[in-house]
Each structure stands twice: as C-alpha cells, then as structure tokens.
Amino acid sequence: MAVKFKVIQRKNPRDLLAAPKSYAIAINNGTVDIDRLAELVGDGSTVRQNDIYAVIIGLLNVIVGELKEGRSVRLDKLGMFSISVSSDPSDTPEEVTASNIKSAKVRYRPGKELRNMLKTLEYTKTSS
How far apart are CA 34 and CA 54, in angstroms? Predict the structure, then answer.
C-alpha cells in the first residue's frame, strides 16, 4: 500500500513575480466513518459493533467534557488533545481579558506509534 500524491504548482505569496514552484500533495483515498471503524474493530475482536460505537461516542463525550475543564486528554498510543487559543494583543498584561480571545482550536498531537507510521509511508505519484 502506498499514499498517492499529485503535483501542483504554487506561487510564492511573498514574491508574486517569481516563477511558481512544484509541490507534492497527498490525494485522499476516501473517508472512513465511525460506523465503518466500529465494524472494523468489531471484526477483529469479540466485542459487537454497536458496543464499540457506544464506547467511541462515550469517549468523545468525556474528551469534550475534559477539554471544557481546561485539561489535556492523553490517549497514550493515539495521542493527545488540548485546547489552543488565538488572541488579539494588548499593550499590558492587565488589559488582556477573555474578550481578547478571538478563536479556539482543538489541538491534536499524535502518539509515538502514529508518528512512527509517518516515517515508514510509501508514496506513489499519480498523473491526476
């Protein structure tokens, strides 16, 4: 198995007069939804698909609750989830309030096993 990629050309936004450069971008080979994941996990274990689905949804609810409390959630091999914010600047620390925060994101940092997988990927160039 290999990750397919194609070549695109992009201009340098800092130098619009420069010649475009060629870059590889990964091609998405489809999407797997939660039902399919539950089915695949169920096929490899003695646990039924609907039980796996319930655990995944329950885990999501717990992760959301913990993130709302300001905690990071570490799922060992899977990775870690945390909240990161972007804010408008103020001249002094005293002037910074919650109203400075303009957006928040869920940050995901993959675990070691997922990071290692990235190091061993194989790639196939496509013409599309």
Answer: 10
- Which residue reads 């925060």 in tokens? 101
Report if pTM > 0.85.
no
Write the DSSP assignment of 13-74 as a string of letters: TTBTTSPPEEEEEEPP-----HHHHHHHHHHTSSS-HHHHHHHHHHHHHHHHHHHHTT--EE
Instruction: Look at residue 52 and tell me if it is in a domain.
Output: yes
For residue 37, the enclosing domain spans 32-71
d(CA 40, CA 56): 13
> 115 in a domain, yes or no?
no
107: helix, strand or coil: strand
User: How many domains does the chain fold into?
Assistant: 1
> Is 66 inside a domain boundary?
yes
Enter the tokens of residue 119.
Answer: 């190091």
Read off the pLDDT of residues 103-125 as tens digits, 9 standing for 90 and up.
999 999 999 999 999 999 999 99
49, two tokens:
């698909």
